[in-house]
Fold these 2 entries.
Entry 1:
Amino acid sequence: MTAGTTVGEHTEHPVEGDLRPEGPPREPVVGRGIRLLLAVGVALLVGAGLLARLGLVGGDAIGAADNGDAIRLYCVADLVPDTSDRAAPGHGVAVTEYRTGGPDCPREAPTTSAGLVLQATVAVTTALDATPPAPDGSDRFSLEWLAAVYVGLLAAGAGVATLAATSAPSLAGRRVRRVAPVLLAVVVPPLLPLLAVPWWSRFLVSSFSESAGLLGAAWMAWGLLTVAVTRPTDRGARAAALGLIALGGVVAATGKPGFLPVGLVAVGVCAVVTVGTRRWWRRTPGLAVALLAVAVAAPAVLSGIAAQDAAYDKVNAHNLAFTAVLPESGPAATAALGLRPEAFRQAGQHFYLDGGRSVPGWAETVGARPDELRSAARLWVAQHPLVLARMVHRGLVATLRPHIPYLASETGGPRTVSGEIPRPAFPEGSQLMGPTFVYFDGLPGRWVPPTVVVLALLAAALALIASRVPRLSAATTRTGRGLALTAGTLAVTALGIVLVAVLGDGYCEVAKHVWLGSYLLVVTAATLVASGVAAGAVWFRGRGDRGDRTDDRTDPTARPVPDGAAGW
């Protein structure tokens, strides 16, 4: 007995060599082997779930039928649809069977991530396929094989995020009951919309570039969530997260110009994520990764934008002016756009309705000056914020329709497709904006997408404030603040996709153009729920048992994190 103690008292620390039990058996920790098994198991479950959702195993596959745009992708791999007319659109089903040896692209095709994945898949699968070549020497290729590759890449992203999140020193020593919520917060939000409904995952069975955008967005989301649940001292976990964010941004941004906001946000996030604790060096890894991502993606992004402008400059200029700016502004905008006053009578008409022939003076005011018209339209929108707000709001409302029903989901199967299955008309695909406006204005839940964006931005702002105010920081957890920041980042990305869509091609096929934004908004909502659950858990545990303090105790060798490194 030491001085200052009495019989019946317990010292704070057990006496060295004291072998008496200290209490009930402790819960098992998540060791290295278990973490690796978790990562492999998550990857396998994600892959199996997506294969089942798409009907690639034990069922009829679902996909997305071609609307005439897909040739821009499959031509880079010298493919041709295995149909009676050697064309994919117009059959009322998603054509999945192709043959090699197709004609060259009608115009020079830019280098895209979707094209590289397709070319690699064609090269490997045609070499492994045991089906004998056709009499003309062509080999069979199925879009189901391409979908399987994307499923594997998505599963790999989920596995990497799982391994990184559970291997972080600040988390690795946690008990199983504490690791499970972290694992759910990282894996579930990007995965849930892909498994719950087919609206996004079915585009994996298509020759659209949307597949690459979806893969990149999911990778970036998993990387952001990994950052949210780890600390700057978790160097390996943060490095893996930076890799997922940067790769996701590059893959999405180089998939098609409309997905550029994913790449821009990814670069911005990488630049501010901290790794380590040294004040002058903790941002160096993120900045290096951001610069590398820009260097890799910039040439492909610029070539994609140039190819888009070369092929669709008149189409995009017409659609921006006549489907969006004029309907939202009224006749007053015609003079500012350089159009004749009587041209307003054709407001709401897509280019593909009649190629602009019904617009008075179209050849002089649109066809001869598409770049000038687009610049004038965007300047008008910038000078009239209410017009911009209405355009963005209508784009957000369009995210409620990721179904895109005018693109058939039924696939033609492993056979030569001939004939046509008639498809009903849908307002999302109307070439007159009147029916589309009436339909969107009558959708239930029009308030949901803007509300998700506002709540996510507010949560992110509060998280930033809380990380810098000691009293608020003590009342929250690092994980909760990180999830709130992730929700805000994803909301900004979705908003960027909507903005690019409505300022790029107006309301032409707007539901398809904001399709990736709708996916990101669902992931945003799921992340907000996870952040709320984290905040609620702290409230119920009380001030003395917070997750962040447990993190500090489980990593006794961790250095103190400077205030400037709090959060990301």
Entry 2:
Amino acid sequence: MTTMTEASVREFKMPDVGEGLTEAEILKWYVQVGDTVTDGQVVCEVETAKAAVELPIPYDGVVRELRFAEGTTVDVGTAIIAVDVSGGAAPEPAPAAPAEPEPAPAEEAEPQGRTPVLVGYGVAASSTKRRPRKGPEVAVAAAPAGLNGHGPAAPAAAPVKERPLAKPPVRKLAKDLGVDLARVVPSGPDGIITREDVHAAVAPAEPVVEAPVPAPAAVPAPAPAAAGYDFARETRIPVKGVRKATAQAMIGSAFTAPHVTEFVTVDVTRTMKLVEELKQDKEFQGLRVNPLLLIAKALLVAIKRNPEVNASWDEAAQEIVLKHYVNLGIAAATPRGLIVPNIKDAQDKTLPQLSAALGELVSTAREGKTSPAAMQGGTVTITNVGVFGVDTGTPILNPGESAILAVGAIKLQPWVHKGKVKPRQVTTLALSFDHRLVDGELGSKVLADVAAILEQPKRLISWA
């Protein structure tokens, strides 16, 4: 009877809802202990470093236990909810969950047939290969101590030694200093070893006793800061989720890709007239038509005329990867922070299709429902700072992309038109690009083409 009860309790583990993510915060539970759940029912909402995602349960049953409270950050692969799939109602069998490791293979086998249910939901097997924390997953159900099982599991260090995460320059530094990367404790995002980690591994290498000393010293350090902290006049906000991911991405981009930014001020009066005409066109009925639509199309045409700008830098292979597709990113400010979802294969879309895609992208972002897949694989990005009344800026590249176009506010300004000073609709464009990939001539051509199209939008037809 006990065996039957133990076998009937199944644990649902935090899946990898985004490529390579290692943790997620539980934002909200939609079920409580004792509730009946069905296959595919959403049980909670979690926030990763990329987006907020709803998680469906992969089987029928009765909720026996919610392992973590709302607001808790949980590692991928950790059991978050226990469900009695036998349909019983007695709460006593809940402690039997520790015996769950036996049916664990069945649990992993089931999601394989459910890949379409959720982005990243059915790929736990492949994603866990890249993480050394797969070993301790079995011990999670036994006790909370399993969460700290990285120490005891270290002797088995096969996954760690197999592929420590570090960029080629860091690997070279480690080789020059004689440091074994498998022995270095990473501090970078997603477990990446940084230069500081390598140097830190060298410094305490000789006086072994000093290795634990920094840890205790770091504990009392915050105390003086807290003592001088004015709670009435200052607020401290934990850096996590989208904000944390954005900070890490911007630092990585700013100090990896050599940025160059060029500017051009352009008369967009004809473009603004075309926007008003398109709003009355039957082809755009029910669609949102605004200057961003024509700016996006202008950038796509400019990329078509200068395809070399649509590329990425492969540091490991020392190769430039030319993209024969354009996944057009649109920077969007949301309550959770800045995200950059992208329109897949934007180069193939007609103007009405591009308008529909932009509308869906913006509405989904505002609702906080942008999926991790929608934010992956971008090639170039547009950031519309003009909506805030800003003239222009020097945007930082989205990691892995070659260029980003900033669009300033469109304002009536005095402009020389046909030999006379007249009030015209004018804006300033700024193009930042990765100087490893894009030289000054190529970057200037792309920016000049975008400006020329916005000045004379008929070029959308003649240059397309």
